[in-house]
Design brief:
This protein has 153 residues and is of the alpha+beta class. The chain contains 4 helices and 8 strands. A hairpin with a 2-residue loop joins strand 2 and strand 3. The two termini are 25 Å apart.
């Protein structure tokens, strides 16, 4: 199952979508890092009136959840394009499985959703305390510097 919920910069809508997603994956809100909470997301999109995206891929009991902020990229003469990023601070996808096949499917479906929704780029600030980057199946080129990892699609 793939579920994508979008909320404009309205705290009540963001909170409702957070509740829906957490119910689907049976996750308690108090187990989330502050960077994933609705109030924090709201504060991150308030000024620019961006959109909060909850991208969920679930297969049986396994889930992959990516929570992002979507912004419009204005290029005159072209259709609207977007970029996505984790909220200020740390983020990255949350998942409860280390099954490489499941994670490969999840990243495939996420990449496909990005292409279909005119997402040109993504900035993810991975939390160094969570192993989420180490477990992602990235079939892309990685350029690693001292402080940054660039993933080139």
């Amino acid at each position: 199952m793939i579920k994508v919920l979008e909320s404009k910069s309205n705290l009540l809508d963001i909170k409702k979508n957070e509740d829906k997603i957490l119910k689907i994956i049976d996750l308690k809100r108090d187990s989330l890092d502050i960077n994933y909470l609705s109030e924090y997301l709201y504060l991150n999109c308030l000024k620019k009136k961006n959109t909060i995206i909850y991208f969920l891929y679930k297969d049986g009991e396994e889930f992959f959840l990516n929570i992002l902020i979507k912004s419009t990229i204005n290029i005159s003469g072209f259709k609207s394009f977007f970029d996505i990023e984790t909220p200020y601070g740390y983020g990255g996808p949350l998942f409860n499985s280390h099954n490489k096949i499941f994670l490969k499917k999840a990243t495939y479906f996420f990449d496909d959703w990005c292409k279909k929704n005119f997402i040109l780029c993504q900035l993810t600030r991975f939390n160094p305390l969570l192993p989420n980057i180490n477990n992602l199946v990235l079939e892309k080129k990685k350029l690693i510097t001292q402080k940054y990892i660039f993933i080139i699609i």
